[in-house]
Amino acid sequence: MSKKRAITVAKGDGIGPEIMDSTLKILQAAGAEIDPEFIDIGEKVYLSGQSSGIEDDAWESLRRTKVFLKAPITTPQGGGYKSLNVTIRKSLGLYANVRPNISYDPFVKTKHPDMDLVIIRENEEDLYAGIEHQQTPEVVQCLKLITRPGSEKIIRYAFEYARKNNRKKVTCFSKDNIMKLTDGLFHKVFNEIASEYPDIETEHWIIDIGIAKIADTPQDFDVIVMPNLYGDIASDVAAQITGSVGLAGSANIGDQCAMFEAIHGSAPDIAGKGIANPSGLINGAIMMLVHIGQPEVAGKIHNAWLKTLEDGIYTGDIAKGAKSVNTKEFTEAVIDRLGQKP
Ligand code: ATP
Ligand code: MG
Questions:
Q1: I need a labelling partner for 158 at 20 to 30 A (CA). Which of 151, 264, 291, 340 fits?
Q2: Which atom belonging to ligand 1 lies closest to the Cα atom of 269?
Q3: Could you tell me if 118 and 101 are in contact, meaning their C-beta atoms sit under 8 angstroms apart?
Q4: Strand 96-102 with 249-253, pairing
Q5: 193-227 as b/e, with b when 16 or more CB fall inside 10 Å?
Q6: Distance 265 CA to ligand 1 centre (A)
Q7: Predicted ipTM > 0.85
Q8: What's the chain's Rg over C-alpha atoms?
């Protein structure tokens, strides 16, 4: 019997197919024991009349393999299209969004050479719960949902992540000076769970000054946990200051299923040109390999990818006007470096 792990793969829209082909080629060359099952999601599916952007039989593959490697998709503008990301997170119970933000200075120039933080964002509750009402033609309302079980789950995940990954501090962001009940509950649960982890340093910042501190002194942070909407905003700020949105990957974790992706969008402006940076999806795939119990292959790919950057081989988004390579050349450069010493 094959020991290959079945995974569900979606090539997505825009630059999606280009960066997915690159990533799968690298996984194969590195000897990842995976058996990809391809599903169609995104623009084509939306436009064929399925407003969720995903076909019914794609769920069968996702529920069976429980592991999803997903390229970015385009949501058509206007019309009644829902966000497929929100649909997938809720349907598969992916409660934790894990986004590492690392500086690769001096190989990728940034203003923050010592940055190495992980944002852990609650992924199902808060203002994303979709509880919106129109009260009168001129008054609309959106309800913020924070639950004790949801808060306990994400905060415990953050502390367990810190322990497992040898991280020293967990910071909580909230706005409980204003939202005393909702954010107050999140902060209270944080303090309760923190007391179970005396080995880990803890701190709390009000969200506005917290994000300002990420932008100014990101090196002061380690693991940061926060409710959904704050996590969305904070993680874009953190990713941007590492040098390019094309670099970072993310994991969406649930009790049964998990989804891995790049943090950026489908970049329609450069789609089809063969110049996209596949690094974000490669980093998502590295997190996937660790999740499915293939950490050696993950490490091998990570080292080869780092070596590629160290050797000054950049796609256009990183080279910023200097000499650059295309997606295919970057992919081959990573494959050439598999197994080399970092
Ligand atoms: P979406 O709505 O799908 O999230 P967006 O408008 O937020 O899309 P992105 O698709 O993330 O934006 O693109 C933002 C900018 O970054 C674009 O100019 C795009 O070309 C560039 N970009 C994004 N990803 C990459 C990548 N992997 N390689 C090179 N450039 C990228
Ligand atoms: Mg975007």
A1: 264
A2: 20
A3: yes
A4: antiparallel
A5: bbeebeebebeebebeebbeebeeebeebbbbbbb
A6: 5
A7: yes
A8: 20
Angstrom distance (rounded) from CA 28 to CA 7: 13
pTM over 0.90: yes
Q: Does residue 1 carry a pLDDT above 60?
A: no
Cross-strand pairs, 262 = 249
DSSP 86-138: HHHHHHTT--EEEEEEE--TTTS--S-TT-EEEEEEE-SSBGGG--EEEEETT
Compute how many other C-beta atoms are within 10 angstroms of the C-beta atom of residue 57. Answer: 9
- Looking up tokens 């010592």 gives 114
Using one digit for the tens of pLDDT, what is the confidence trace for 250-279? 999 999 999 999 999 999 999 999 999 999
Distance CA 7, CA 34 (A): 7
Rounded to a whole number of angstroms, the distance between the first and last alpha carbons of the chain is 35
Place of tokens 């990954």: 165
Buried b vs exposed e over 142-166: b needs ≥16 C-beta within 10 Å?
Answer: eebbbeeebbebbbbbbbebbeeee
